[in-house]
Amino acid sequence: MKRLLLLLFTIASLTALCQRKITPVTTGATMTQSRNEVKNDSTDRSNLVEMKDAEGRIILVDTVTGKEFVDSAALKKKKEVHHPLLHSAIIGVDIWNPVMRAFGQKYGLIGFSAQINLKNRYIPTFEFGLGNANYDPDDNNYTFHSGISPYFKLGMDYNFLFKSNPNYLAFVGIRYGFSPFKYQLRDVTTGSDYWGETSPVDFPEKSYTASWYEISFGIRAHVWKDISIGWTFKYHRKLGGNDEDGKPYYIPGYGSTSSNIAAAFSIYYTLPLWTNKKHRVPKNVVTDSSLPQNANSTPPQGENTTETDAPQQNMETEYNDITNSETPTQ
Q: Does the predicted model carry a pTM greater than 0.70?
C-alpha cells in the first residue's frame, strides 16, 4: 500500500514539473470576449495576434485561418469636428429695405457685409451701406428729407453651431455703427387758423452724425452651392448725436428713430479659404504601358506618367469628409 501511494505521488510530481507555466494576460480582447463571442464561434483565441490595419485601427488576426477581428476595446472614440482658423470669407447683401420700399416704405436703401469665419465660431463683420429718406409722418405737417448717405458698422458674431455643419448658423452678434448725414424738414405748413391761410416753408439743411450700438440674433442656411440666406433681428439704441436742434426721424443704417427694433434679410456668398488636402480623392495615375498594371504596383522606372487631380469638392462634401478626421491642413 505504501509503495502504491509513493508511486502515485511520484507520478503527480513529474506531471506538475512537465507542465508549461502559463501566465494569463488580460487584454482588451479577453475582457470583452464574452460580449464578442457568438454562437458556433470556433475561433481558437490562443492563435490571435494584435496588429494594425491600413487605417491604423488595432485588429486581431488568427494566425491559422487568417481571419481578422476588430478589437472593440481598442476602438478610438469618434473625434470632434475641428475647423481651420481661416475657414471662409462671406459677402452678403441686405435686401430687406429694397423689398420694403417696393411695398411703400419711404426710407432705407441697401446694405452690404463682409465677414471672416474663424473656426466656424467667431465671425468678425464689417458692414457698409447707403440710406435715404423722403417721408411724411402721419401726425406731422412736414416732409422729412435725407439724401443718399453712407453708414458703417463694425462688430462680431458668435456661432452657437460651431461644432456642426458650417452651412448652417445660429448666432448672436454685437455692432457699433455710425453715420454722417444731412437732413431737412420740407414743406412745413405754417399759417393762421384765424385767417385760414397756410404756406409751406423749408427749414435749412442740418448736418448730423449718429452713433449707436446693436445687438442681433440671426439664423443662416445653405440653399444652393455657395449661396446662403438668413434672417437677422436687431435691437439698437443711440449712443451719440446732437438732438438740441431736433431729432431726425431716420438715420441711415439705423432706421426709424421711433423704434428700437429692426430686421434684415440677406443673401450670402461663401468663399472657402482652406482645402482638405488629407482627405482628397487619390490622384489617378495613367501609364503609357500597354501591359495591365496592378492598382497597387509601382510603375517601372523611366515610364512616363501623368497625374490628374481629382475634381475639387464643394464645402458640404468636404465637411462630410472631416467629421471623422483630425484637424484639416490649412
A: no
Cα 67 from Cα 65, distance rounded (Å): 6
| Helices vs. strands in the chain: H and E counts, helices first | 5, 17
Q: Could you say which of 3.40.190.10, 3.40.50.2300, 3.40.630.30, 2.40.160.20 is the CATH number of the domain covering 86-272?
A: 2.40.160.20
- Residue 225, Ramachandran bin (φ over 0: left; ψ between -120 and 50: alpha; else beta): left
What phi-psi label fits residue 42: left (phi over 0), alpha (psi between -120 and 50 degrees) or beta? alpha
Contact 72, 32 (CB under 8 A): yes
Q: What is the pLDDT of residues 262-298, one digit of tens each?
A: 999 999 999 998 765 544 444 444 444 444 444 444 5
Using the 8-state DSSP alphabet, how is residue 10 labeled?
H
The three cell numbers of residue 100 are 420694403
Q: Quick check: helix, strand or coil at residue 111?
A: strand
